[in-house]
Write a structure and sequence with these properties.
Number of helices: 3
Radius of gyration: 24 Å
Structural class: alpha+beta
Largest sheet: 5 strands, antiparallel
Mean pLDDT: 79
Helix content: 25-40%
Number of strands: 9
Low-confidence stretches: 166-172
């Protein structure tokens, strides 16, 4: 399940727990002795149950959807080509970072997909890493818990042809850029990633 689904389950469960662990015992303690207080508590119970139920239901839906995709979908190996922020979910006050992957489907077509990581992208999902994804009926999820340093067929084309962020001709014109690993002088368009022919590491022009 992605972070959004986990957030909904935890957030919804929190409000349901407050309703059951706090408000219900309080109502039992009052035992109808104070009608005004009982009405106040009943309204809060209704509010908390509604909030908790909605979010918990969304989380369960996400969980069932993921299980359905894993059971019926087609798995592919893909290369990580970029990152994308998701403002729906905040992690430590910052938007969740999703992973943009590029892969060949069963028909041999090159596709892009944005998937939510199962953990932080720092260290676990570096650019150029290989991950396993599962696609079903237009939905794609990440199966791998972290990226691995594994070569896949046609990975050079997957990495070098990706340029989803280009907005001007300057971003598709090759320019001099040094490999941070071995110092080789490479020609890389802005925003694109290439494989260094000297040290075989993937290098992204971040200008």
């Amino acid at each position: 399940m992605d972070y959004f689904g986990k957030f909904c389950l935890l957030f919804g469960g929190f409000w349901l727990l407050i309703s059951v662990a706090v408000l219900v015992p309080l109502a039992i303690t009052l035992g109808g002795s104070d009608p005004d207080s009982m009405l106040f508590i009943a309204l809060f119970m209704l509010l908390f149950f509604t909030i908790g139920g909605v979010f918990f239901g969304i989380g369960l839906k996400q969980l069932f959807k993921k299980n359905k995709i894993l059971k019926n979908g087609t798995a592919y190996y893909a290369k990580i080509v970029a990152y994308e922020e998701d403002s729906r979910v905040l992690v430590n006050g910052r938007p969740l970072t999703n992973i943009v992957v590029r892969y060949y489907d069963k028909s041999g077509r090159m596709n892009n997909a944005t998937v939510s990581p199962n953990g932080s992208v720092k260290g676990g999902f570096p650019l150029g890493g290989t991950v396993e994804i599962v696609e079903y009926e237009g939905e794609t999820i990440l199966k791998s818990k972290k990226a691995v340093n594994m070569k896949i067929q046609g990975e050079e084309n997957l990495m070098m042809s990706y340029n989803g962020g280009a907005v001007s001709v300057d971003q598709i014109r090759p320019e001099s850029y040094y490999c941070p690993h071995c110092g080789a002088n490479l020609m890389i368009p802005r925003g694109q990633t290439v494989k260094c022919p000297y040290c075989e590491s993937f290098v992204t022009n971040t200008r």
